[in-house]
Amino acid sequence: MKKIVKKTSEKYVTEKTFKTKFDNFDAKFERSMQAIAKSFADNAEVMALILKEIRDIHEGNKHFRESMSSLYGDVFSHDKRIDNLDVRVEKLESKVK
Questions:
Q1: For residues 42, 48, 53 and 55, what is the CA-based torsion angle, rounded to 10 degrees?
Q2: Separation CA 25–CA 19 (nearest Å)
Q3: Cα–Cα distances in Å, from 58 out to 11, 48, 63?
Q4: Taxonomically, which superkingdom (predicted)?
Q5: Does the global pTM surpass 0.70?
Q6: How far apart are CA 73 and CA 88, in angstroms?
Q7: How confident is residue 55, by pLDDT bands cut at 50, 70 and 90?
Q8: How far is Cα 23 from Cα 30, in angstroms, rounded to an integer?
């Protein structure tokens, strides 16, 4: 028995086969480009959301630092007053003795 080899493609590229192959390639390429464009759009939305969250966190930290700074200033001034009162009490106690 003789084996028959099937012809998978023509020896020469004809306009019809070229057009078919090119149209297939063009359709696949177009789908790929649309997928990439969608991916970039999705990434842009995600990056905008991340940037918004970072700004919100930054504002929260700024408010926290400002409130801590004012509290530290208040504590420092109260400590100075207490130290001043301690010195005055010690002077009065030394006068009484």
A1: 170
A2: 10
A3: 67, 15, 9
A4: Bacteria
A5: no
A6: 23
A7: very high
A8: 10
Which tens digits make up the pLDDT trace of 1-33? Answer: 567 766 666 566 678 877 888 899 999 999 999
Per-residue pLDDT, 8:
63
Contacts of residue 9, Cβ cutoff 8 Å, sequence gap at least 6: 17
